[in-house]
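__Record contents__

***
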Amino acid sequence: MVLRFKPLLAVLLSIMFVAPGCLGDDNVGIPLDDFSYTADDGNEYSRDEMKGSDYLIHFSASWCSRCYKSMHNISDAIGDTDYLIMSVEKEGLSGLSTWHDTVDESNSTQDIIAPFMDGSELSEVLGVSAMPTIYLIDENGNIINIHEGDLTDHDEILKFLNQA
């Protein structure tokens, strides 16, 4: 009996690895939890302050060097859309600045024009576990979509962004 389900299990596991960002999430469609953080640029960013425009929250960590390419490609593709990069680990302002510099240095043609901040509390509340995890938030502060894993293809980034 167990052998009958092996092909089905193999297909389901393949889908999980091929399309990790497309499996949905319980947080989609609900209001984003309140947050207020000081970023490496010295400015304060909060959910209430961000209301009125769509924006992305990119959860990552300084140790995730493979995530840098997603940051650069998203930054390049999104135009005027606000983009917040939040660490899933406790980071002081100097650690955030160092991380931002390291990400900038990983691409010789483009700096990331986005604030880096400690989002460890928000990431814990949301249950973020994959690096990176990108949230698309609408102008009312509602979670529109979530992508887990690398997001580097220009067309895929625009498709994700256009869901708002």
